[in-house]
Design brief:
- This protein is α+β, with helices and mostly antiparallel strands.
- It has two domains: 147 residues, Roll (Outer membrane lipoprotein wza fold like); 78 residues, wza like domain (wza like fold, 2-Layer Sandwich), CATH 3.30.1950.10.
- Helix content is 29%, strand content 21%.
- It has six helices and twelve strands.
- The strands form four sheets. The protein has a five-stranded mixed sheet with strand order 7-6-12-9-10, with helices on one face. Strands 2-1-5 form a three-stranded antiparallel sheet. It has a two-stranded antiparallel ribbon with strand order 3-4.
- The protein starts with 8 loop residues before the first helix and ends with a helix.
Length: 253
């Protein structure tokens, strides 16, 4: 009976192989059937450089006064590293305040770094002549996910970081990156805004400034066929076996 039904075996094996290939689909984050068009509102979310970052609760801040390391916390003017890793910072507490040497608690939440510097210059100017003060946020971050060589979370050390700068920090794209549907995700107020870009179109990069802000997520999806490429080495022996069986059965028949 097995031999009488052997003509159906290649078809059965072919069906099994087809199922395996169909299972090689790739899960793509941040993907929906309908994407928002690039409109003025979305453009403004990523192109506006006039809206500077404002200090918020849980921000880690370094505070520096030129020539006064004794009053500074993580001084950018000193000879020692002021990086967040070294713990040289002060945190904005739940009341929106920070505690600084000599003056105690001061409210800074809602201020830009420049506004905080001006406020502190006035206060410290009471006992320091023309103080030079720097306030720097150490925990502004952007996350890069998907098909890049070094995905992860990266610090925004400058006030303005372009999309391409951040992608450079992530090591650039890997061989499986689908540049036709790169997605940028941003929390604006209590809403999430998403922008989809085709990075193969150089005119879009020229049209959009694409400045990254704290909390942004960049997702580079995989191109179709990634999982098939990865599973191909394990599928080749299987397909070879199917071919050999089909040949033998055809000879028997």
């Amino acid at each position: 009976m097995l031999l009488s039904n052997h003509r159906y075996l290649p078809l059965t094996l072919g069906f099994i192989l087809l199922c395996l290939l169909a299972s090689c689909g790739t899960q793509r984050l941040y993907q929906s059937e309908k994407h928002d068009p690039i409109n003025d509102s979305l453009l403004q979310a990523w192109s506006d450089t006039t809206m500077a970052y404002r200090l918020a609760t849980d921000d880690k801040v370094s505070f520096s006064i030129w020539g006064h390391d004794d009053l500074s916390i993580g001084s950018v003017f000193g000879i020692y590293n002021s990086n967040e890793v070294y713990g040289k910072w002060v945190m904005v507490d739940p009341n929106g305040q920070i505690t600084l040497p000599k003056i105690g608690r001061i409210a800074v939440a809602g201020m830009t770094c420049r506004e905080a510097e001006d406020t502190l210059k006035t206060i410290y100017g009471r006992f320091i002549v023309d103080p030079i003060i720097s306030v720097k946020v150490l925990n502004r971050e952007v996350t890069v996910l998907g098909e890049v060589r070094d995905p992860g979370t990266f610090l925004l050390e400058k006030e303005h970081h372009h999309l391409l700068e951040v992608l450079g920090k992530a090591g650039g794209f890997n061989d499986y990156a689908d540049l036709s549907s790169v997605r940028l995700v941003r929390l604006r107020g209590d809403q999430t805004v998403e922008l989809e870009l085709d990075l193969r179109a150089s005119d879009q990069l020229r049209q959009l400034p694409l400045w990254m802000k704290n909390g942004d997520v960049i997702y580079i999806p995989p191109r179709r066929g990634k999982m098939f490429d990865k599973k191909a080495p394990t599928l080749i022996p299987f397909t070879s076996a199917i071919t050999a069986v089909a040949i033998i059965l055809s000879l028997i028949n």
